[in-house]
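Form 12-C: Joint structure prediction
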Amino acid sequence: MLLQNSTNPYFPAPSEIFTSARSTLTWDWVSTSLKSSLTTLLGGYFIGAILGILLGAVIGSQEFLRAVFTPITNFIRSIPAVAKVPVIMALLGIGTASRICSVSVAVLFPVLMVTLRAVATTDEQLLDNARLMGYGTYRTIFSVRLPAATGQILAGLQAAVQVALFIMVISEMLGSGIGLGAFVIHSQQTFMIEDMWTGILILGALGLFLNEAFLILERRIAPWYFKSKEIR
Amino acid sequence: MKIGSISGYEVRVNGISMSFLNSDSEKVVLHDISFAVASGEVLAICGLSGVGKSTLLKLISGLSLPTAGQVQIDSVVVNGPHPGLGFVTQDYSRSLFPWLTVARNVALPFKALNVSQEEKAAKIKQVLISVGLEDSSHLFPWQLSGGMQQRVAIARALVTQPRLLLLDEPFASVDAHVRLELEDLIARLVDEHAVTTILVTHDIDEAIYMADRVITLSGSPAGIGMEFDVDLPRPREQIISRAEARFSQLRTDLYLGLRK
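Section 2 - Result
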């Protein structure tokens, strides 16, 4: 409403953004920027999430591994995820691999920490049962500790969606020249303010969509968890 | 009807003591406890809450090891979780896996054993029938009432035909009516399987109703207070057995013994 008749160049009227979006939303644009962004985001997210869960499960279940790795992971985790992006670019260049890697690393740590803590605090009685049934270390981790940690891991995974999106944008802005983040920063620098807004709005829609998709997926992955807790 | 030809374990507890380190002070919970359980016998360990009954049961199972003395199962010294045990605890919600159906929960003890699929399926079916859950095998534990969940736990403890059944207040979390039902269920299954059974309970009526012999734990650190045989005829029946003069005599003795 406020912006309807805006003449401020930095805050164009929605109608202008929409017009600009129609001209920029060509198949080319979608297939390059969005595809690249989604590759970075989903690739990085899944790699980071799977590694985070596996490492968290193994480290969290063994007391000596916890003692060894906690100071190391705490240190690496304390470096802001954004600050790690230039390091990864220095190591891997500015291609797809380095963007995926940046997102993975950013997703890995929160997921690892949540999984580690959840797996380290499995109910003693479940563990007693596992020991009496003759379960070994491997079976106890994957058949008892991990499923028992479902709720906490899902919460960690959900928080990591936003982290992934954030790091995706940053890694694209930092010199890749490709993807939604690059499109936004390029539009801003070349004073294509309407295009910039288009990119921002698409990023917003993407974040919203991913969050909703996560809520649907998590109920498919662990239906028992939501039904047993009567979470709607 | 007896199932299988294997007999129950014989258990010997030889002078065990247990203490826990509490920051820097050592708290002795159990002191110099000795007793034996014959093959097929049902022993009740009775004591007030917090006396160390569950700790004693964990030591017998091998889940924890005593600071002194030893437990022998069929003359073998226990030094870790012992094979051939069934364990049922008070808190079914913490011992069943909520991510698995009833049938898959009951199947869990087979995972680390080498049993063919057909044998496994047959045994699961049989045990679910014997606890009256054959129609609930596809449900999840949280879809069942407390009494039914405890039946699942009992089925899981019995499915591999254990030779020693350890029961830690197994009826304490269900309501009074279900409790009597489960007592009779356990009594029947213990008889069918000819399994040695150790029942830990704070309930004196339950101890007498279920057991062939009762020992009490009392004091701090806890030791064995009294020990007596329950000379009530079997099979027992909730109304008739509990109405017998001998039952109330034993009940009085046990009550006074625990107060001492």
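Section 3 - Comments
The beta strands of chain B are 11-22, 25-37, 42-47, 68-73, 76-77, 85-89, 164-168, 196-201, 213-218, 223-229. Chain B has a mean pLDDT of 91.
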